[in-house]
């Protein structure tokens, strides 16, 4: 399957891009996608545990099963207000 | 519960917001909160904060927070304005209005809204014009 990963806030600076595409095996989870992103952008590895993850507009857990065409967002802790 | 959410690059026009206020006869409390940009961020002096949002997700997460407020308190209306882009020091980046029959629920709902926003709503800030450390660290 192919999924799109969007980077937000200073994650865009670290990756020097706003998005990337990932090819993942069927049955892959959001955690698998996160690991694949870190393999592609090792700089994000240090922030793995503080990284917030969403599919579409909802937060999801590491175990969330992905589907072809999903749009994943990875970002640092939020800071509104 | 009526809700209104605005994410905008424009300055917050409080006079216009107050002029648009709708309160039914049974309401006895209108709480308004301003979140204002401070001149200090992480011990550095700054001139502004640049706010970025994942707009679609921010709107969705605010809607979820509004639904939780509606379940917990007898609130008539919630209005939220959050500025995006560069907001100079001393200007509000956040405006919240909550209308309810009594003050207790407005204060509680406002605290809940802002605390939950700071955990869940994908908005981020970058300091602008950092010039110096404003206070020495304790030794």
Could you walk me through the main structural features you see in this protein, from its secondary elements to its overall organization?
By secondary structure, chain A is of the alpha+beta class. Chain A has one domain: Ubiquitin-like (UB roll) (Roll), CATH 3.10.20. Chain A has helices at residues 10-15, 30-40; strands at 2-7, 19-23, 52-55, 58-59, 71-75. A 5-stranded mixed beta sheet of chain A has the order 2-1-5-3-4. The longest helix of chain A has 11 residues, at 30-40. The termini of chain A are far apart. Chain B has 139 residues and is an alpha+beta fold. Chain B has a single domain, classed as Aldehyde Oxidoreductase, domain 3, CATH 3.90.1170. Chain B has helices at 14-19, 55-72, 103-120, and strands at residues 2-8, 29-36, 40-41, 44-45, 48-53, 77-83, 85-88, 92-100, 123-128. In chain B, the strands form 3 sheets. In chain B, strands 1-6-8-2 form a 4-stranded mixed beta sheet, with helices on one face. In chain B, strands 7-5-9 form a 3-stranded antiparallel beta sheet. Chain B has a two-stranded antiparallel sheet with strand order 3-4. The radius of gyration of chain B is 16 Å and the shape is globular.
């Amino acid at each position: 399957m192919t999924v799109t990963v969007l980077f937000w806030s200073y994650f865009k600076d670290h990756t020097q891009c706003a998005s990337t595409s990932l090819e993942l095996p069927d049955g892959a989870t959001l955690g698998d996608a996160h690991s694949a992103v870190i393999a592609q952008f090792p700089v994000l590895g240090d922030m793995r545990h503080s990284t917030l993850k969403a599919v579409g507009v909802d937060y999801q857990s590491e175990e969330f099963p992905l589907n072809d065409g999903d749009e994943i967002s990875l970002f640092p802790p939020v800071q509104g207000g | 519960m009526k809700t209104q959410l605005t994410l905008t690059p424009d300055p917050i026009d409080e006079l216009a917001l107050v002029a648009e206020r709708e309160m039914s006869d049974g309401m006895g409390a209108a709480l308004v909160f301003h979140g204002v940009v401070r001149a200090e961020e992480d011990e550095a002096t700054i001139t502004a904060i640049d706010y970025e949002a994942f707009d679609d997700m921010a709107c969705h997460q605010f809607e979820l927070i509004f639904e939780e407020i509606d379940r917990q308190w007898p609130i008539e209306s919630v209005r939220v304005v959050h500025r995006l882009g560069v907001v100079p020091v001393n200007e509000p980046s956040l405006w919240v209005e909550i209308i309810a029959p009594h003050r207790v629920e407005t204060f509680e709902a406002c605290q809940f809204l802002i605390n939950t926003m700071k955990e869940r709503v994908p908005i981020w800030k970058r300091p602008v014009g950092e010039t110096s450390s404003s206070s020495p660290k304790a030794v």
